[in-house]
Specification:
single chain; 412 residues; globular
């Protein structure tokens, strides 16, 4: 392969990686991490970027997964780690895929509801998004692939617009707040923001299994996502009050399960920001819904064929898409909670702990030590998330906010 064409392939694949990262995670990131403060947020984001990139490199190096046209994650981990590995993968994958679809449906409702002055019917918004996104998932993937470059350009333009308007309302003293105790509780959302691992086999096949080129593409793609996440977290934390009177604060958005764009649009009162926020959120949610919906449909079809002895596409589609819609309608305000569960349990297990065990099993010396480090770090995230989900841990942010009128830090 010529160097120019090879470079072009690396760049195109890196954009695919970045595009798969830009979903609900980036919208939730400033709200969840912002409650621990700017410096803890940055360190947590850098740590999880390094860990998620490491596990991606591990999986990309597994020939039995990437070079087989029929291999899937449950089969791969059953072969490598036994029956326990298989069923951990099955359960975790269902948490990821169902949880993300719930997050996209409820997150879209939060964005639309929050950005319009007049009240909009919650079930109507959810059902409309569900019908459009599900139809595109089942019948419009070819169109989506052809328009992928246009979608990415629109997302970057609208993201740049969001950052531009936020930057004009930055209050740098807000960056001083820290709550290190809350940092572990915010990491599941960071894990979700760096998740692209489902497409690793596809990346490897498209790049003819050139490991060096694959590593470059994944590094560049995740690095672009890292920079976008850091910029977004910085401007939102500095522009949005942490706490205070009214509902347009980080803490209020946290309690309301809202993405950062909702309180920001109220605070900035800019039509350009509101439109950009709506376009960015809808594009990110729809594109991510289609990618994960396709993966979920394939996953469910495998299960229904194996255990229900039916290969009906209609049955697979119903089992894949109706449960997330029902959950979203019954529990509409679960955006941040769903993202946390997906990252802290599902992604953490399949794309964190299990790849770490592969290093422990096959590695030697420093490589094996790295495996133990990876497993330990992701285990901490899992313990915190399960502790909160089961009610065993009650971690609440210790909020202080910057009172501009009194020019002082006021405890809340």
């Amino acid at each position: 392969m010529k160097e120019t064409s090879k470079l072009s392939l690396i760049l195109s694949m890196s954009f695919v990686v970045t595009g798969n990262m830009l979903g609900a995670g980036i919208l939730a990131l400033p709200i969840k991490t912002g409650l621990s403060g700017f410096i803890p947020s940055v360190l947590g984001i850098l740590l999880m970027w390094a860990l998620m990139l490491s596990t991606a490199m591990i999986l990309a190096g597994q020939k039995s997964l990437t070079e087989s046209k029929t291999a899937d994650l449950p089969t791969f981990f059953q072969k490598e780690l036994g029956t326990v590995g298989k069923w951990i993968t099955v359960v975790a994958n269902m948490i990821i895929l169902y949880g993300l679809l719930v997050a996209y449906i409820s997150g879209t409702e939060s964005v639309v509801q929050g950005l319009f002055t007049k009240p909009v019917s919650t079930p109507l918004v959810m059902i409309c998004f569900f019908l459009v996104a599900t139809f595109l998932t089942l019948f419009g993937m070819k169109l989506m692939r052809k328009g992928n470059a246009v979608i990415m350009i629109l997302m970057w333009v609208t993201f740049g617009t969001l950052v531009f308007y936020c930057a004009q309302h930055v209050e740098t003293p807000r960056l001083r707040f820290t709550d290190w105790q809350y940092l572990p509780a915010s990491l599941p959302v960071v894990v979700t923001a760096f998740h692209f691992h489902n497409i690793i086999p596809s990346i490897c096949r498209n790049m003819d299994f050139d490991q060096r080129a694959i590593r470059k593409a994944m590094f560049l793609g995740t690095f672009i996502g890292l920079i976008m996440n850091l910029i977004w977290v910085c401007v939102v934390i500095a522009a949005l009050p942490l706490d205070g009177p009214g509902t347009d604060t980080v803490l209020a958005a946290f309690h309301g399960n809202q993405p950062a764009t909702v309180p920001l649009s109220h605070l900035l009162e800019s039509r350009a920001f509101t439109i950009s926020a709506l376009v960015f959120a809808l594009l990110a949610m729809t594109a991510a819904y289609m990618a994960n919906g396709t993966a979920l449909t394939s996953f469910i079809r495998d299960l229904t064929t194996t255990y229900l002895h039916t290969s009906s596409r209609a049955v697979a589609a119903a089992v894949a898409f109706l449960p997330p819609l029902i959950i979203s309608l019954v529990y509409p305000n679960v955006f941040l909670d769903a993202i946390g569960l997906v990252g802290g349990v599902g992604i953490d297990l399949i794309f964190g702990i299990l790849p770490g065990w592969l290093l422990i099993k096959y590695g030697r010396g420093k490589v094996r030590v790295l495996g133990y480090v990876i497993v330990a770090c992701f285990s901490v995230v899992l313990i915190y998330e399960l502790g909160q989900e089961l009610g065993l841990l009650h971690i609440r942010p210790h909020v202080e906010y910057w009172n501009v009128s009194h020019k002082s830090i006021v405890p809340h």
